[in-house]
Specification:
It comes from Amycolatopsis japonica. This is HTH tetR-type domain-containing protein. Keywords: DNA-binding, Repressor, Transcription, Transcription regulation. One of its GO terms (molecular function) is DNA-binding transcription factor activity. This protein has ten helices and no strands. By secondary structure, it is mostly helical. The chain folds into two domains: 56 residues, Arc Repressor Mutant, subunit A (Orthogonal Bundle), CATH 1.10.10; 120 residues, Tetracycline Repressor, domain 2 (Orthogonal Bundle). Helix 1 crosses helix 4 and helix 8 crosses helix 9. It starts with 6 loop residues before the first helix and ends with a helix.
Length: 187
Amino acid sequence: MPKRVDHEDRRRQIAAAVRRIAADRGLEGVSLNEVAAEAGISKGFVQHYFASRDDMLRFAATTLRGGIEERIATPLRVRDLLVALLPLDDAGRDDALVANAFLVRALKDPEIAGHFRTGHGLLRDAVAALIAAAQADGDLAQSVDPAAEAGLLLALVAGLGDAVLLGYQTGDEAIALIDLHLSRIAA
């Protein structure tokens, strides 16, 4: 009986290899040969699933949210979600490095930029919902606009994440700044 192949799973395996290379060497290090070697398959196999490097990168960009969604799936409080977005461990650091590599690519690639906009919108909505819930519980001031505050908090976390990646702030210092900001909007 012929072996049944899950083509979508194979594409995801190739995308995972792209992300590993991007985390280590940036997108400059991503080539069909390097991806094939990282995935443990032939270059022809990669080409079977992706007609070009651009196609491969665009597909890999669609898979970026996976790691982030795993980390933010359980937080029920604003602070916990914001801390989960910081690159505080190896997985978070890799996700941040890959996202930053793709961010540069998104500036020139409208399809990848669209994935970023969609992901950011979903994340902003999740933070805004947690803010509204915290207001209903009496933890955050009623004067806070959940949508606007979600935008500010995500900008804060993005900047703090870059600071942690670059080593001019520790994870503990970044968390302390999140706590400081949240204390300013507490009820």
